[in-house]
Amino acid sequence: MENMDPLPLRTDYPIVIAPSQTLSSDEYNLLRSVSIKVVRHLGIIGTCNVQFALNPLCMEYYIIKVNAGLSCSSEFASKATGYPLAYITAKLVLGLNLVELTNNITNQTCACFEPSLDYIVILIPKWNLDKYDQYSNKIESSSKKSTDGVTDGDKSIGRSFEEAFQNALRMVDHDIIGFHSDAPTIADEELIICRAERVLNIATAIRQGYTIERLFDLTKIDRWYLYKFEAIIKFIVEHSHPSTIKHKFILREAKHLGFSDQQIVKYSRITELKLRVLYDQYGIQPFRKQIDTLSGPIKRRRKRPETAIKRRLTM
Predict the structure, then answer these.
(1) Which terminal residue of the chain, N or C, has fewer Cβ atoms less than 10 Å from its own Cβ?
(2) Is residue 45 part of a domain?
(3) Furthest C-alpha separation in the chain
(4) Using alpha carbons only, what angle is made at residue 267 by residues 266 and 269, rounded to the nearest 5 degrees?
(5) Which residues form the signal peptide (predicted)?
(6) pLDDT value at residue 308
(7) How deeply is 160 buried, as exposed, middle or buried, from its count of CB atoms within 10 A (0-12, 13-18, 19+)?
């Protein structure tokens, strides 16, 4: 997993994306091999995560910290992948190895298989600063713990980055309907300084005509993410008309980009009842999928209760 923002003054409140979206194959394998070497050198058995700072222009990297044991990053990784880190760690401490442990979701593969994700999980920190007038929403070197007004936020999941990202924004604040800002203009300083609302300021900047290169120079956020943000804003601008949203392809594309019904009604200026009629007409229905840790190649098999197996043996 990776942080969307570049290396800040503090690493406590980043926007986290899993799996990583901007690493090349060589960069991923390099950091993976270094992590394994660090864990083996320290003799760690159980849960451990290694955090890096990587220069995207070359293969230069720095190890920021090593967390041996369960941490917030480990909790996020476990929930995002479906891999039970705490359970596996307890079994390893008891002397078992990964080959002897079974994946509790598939009930077929062993625990030594690395999780594979065909979806994206995003965590955006939540800033509860309404009742703390003395605190600034600017991320500085001083810590702002959860008791001070900053919490870990909620995890959002989606088939695409745009879908997961817009869902994450709605989960952070119920007043936010998605990646959109009503501010008419924005100053460069609002994009340079890392604040709680900087992501929404990027939406204003794109509507104002900022190019991707200019946004990259100001925010240092990877261009891959900036292009995704631009795609959301372009869709809003190009399809903010009742006649365009009535097309099946456009409506499916809106859901793929993570637009909620409230957003579609607002931008297309149609009624919610009309939108429901279009859903029924085009066969667009909500659905859910099981996190299987292996991207679906192995079908989940239900584990039989132990009592039922004993009864069959005694008969």
Answers:
(1) C
(2) no
(3) 77
(4) 65
(5) none
(6) 40
(7) middle
